[in-house]
Amino acid sequence: MQFENSREFARQLDKEDKLSKYRNEFIFPKVNGKEVIYFVGNSLGLQPKTAQKYVDEIMKDWAELAVEGHFYAEKSWWDYHERFSEKLAKVVGAKPSEVTVMNTLTVNLHLLMVSFYRPSGKRYKIICEEKAFPSDQYMISSQVRFHGYDPKDAIVEIKKRDGENNFRTDDVLKKIKEVGEECALVLIGGVNYYTGQVFDMETITKAGHEVGAFVGWDLAHAAGNIELKLSEWNVDFAAWCSYKYMNSGPGNASGCFINEKYHDTKDIPRFEGWWGHNKERRFLMEPEFQPEPTAEAWQISNAPILAMAPYLASLEMFAEVGMPALIEKRNKIVAYLEFVLHEIDKEVDSSFEIITPADQDQRGTQLSVFLHGEGRELFKYLMEAGVITDWREPNVIRLAPAPFYCSFEDMYEFGQILKKGILTKETIQ
Ligand SMILES: *Cc1c(COP(=O)(O)O)cnc(C)c1O
Question: What is the C-alpha to C-alpha distance for residues 379 and 88, in angstroms, rounded to an integer?
Answer without folding.
Answer: 35
